[in-house]
Amino acid sequence: MLVFVVFLDYSSVQASQRKRSSSYDVLMVDPLEAKRLAAKQMQEIQAKQRFKRQRQIEAINGAWAMIGLTAGLVIEGQTGQTILDQLVGYWTVIISFFIQ
Predict the structure, then answer these.
(1) Are 86 and 72 in contact (CB under 8 A)?
(2) Quick one: CA torsion of 81, 85, 89, 94, rounded to 10 degrees?
(3) Neighbours of 98 (CB within 10 A)
(4) What whole-number distance in Å separates Cα of residue 26 and Cα of residue 44?
(5) Neighbours of 37 (CB within 10 A)
(6) What is the DSSP string of 13-82?
(7) What mean pLDDT is reported for the chain?
(8) Is pLDDT above 50 for 4?
(9) What does the record list as coiled-coil region(s) (predicted)?
(10) d(Cα 5, Cα 28) in Å, to the nearest integer?
(11) How many structural domains does the chain have?
(12) Rounded Cα gap, residues 54 and 60, in angstroms
C-alpha cells in the first residue's frame, strides 16, 4: 500500500487560531490519488531529463561543428583550397571507391 504524507504550510493563519505549535500538519492521501500524483511527477521528471539530454546533444554537436570548421580553415590556410573545394575533393574520393 502506497501512502504519501503531505506537509501544508498554514503560516497565513493567525497564531491564536492554531491548535498546534507546529506550522505543518500531516495529511493522509488516498492511495489512488497518490498514484496519480506520482505518475504526474514522474512525467515531469522525465520531461526535464529529456530536455537536459537534448541540450547536451546539441552542445556536443556544436563542438564538433566548430572543430570541423577550424580544421577546414587551417587546411585552407596551408593548401589554399577553400572549404568547398576540400569537400568536393573528399566526395570525389569517396564516390570513386563505390564506382570502381
Answers:
(1) yes
(2) 140
(3) 6
(4) 25
(5) 14
(6) S-GGG-SSSSSEEEEE--HHHHHHHHHHHHHHHHHHHHHHHHHHHHHHHHHHHHHHHHHHHHHHHHH---
(7) 81
(8) no
(9) none
(10) 6
(11) 1
(12) 10
Q: What are phi and psi of 25, to 5 degrees?
A: -115, 150
Strands 5-9 and 24-28: antiparallel
CA dihedral (83, 89, 93, 95) positive or negative: positive
Residue 6, pLDDT above cutoff 70: no
pLDDT score at 100: 75
- Global confidence as pTM: 0.52
Q: Which amino acid is at 100?
A: Q
Query: Angle at CA 71, nearest 5°, toward 67 and 77?
Result: 145
What does the pLDDT average to over 52-80? 95
Cα-based angle 64, 55, 48 (whole degrees, multiple of 5): 160
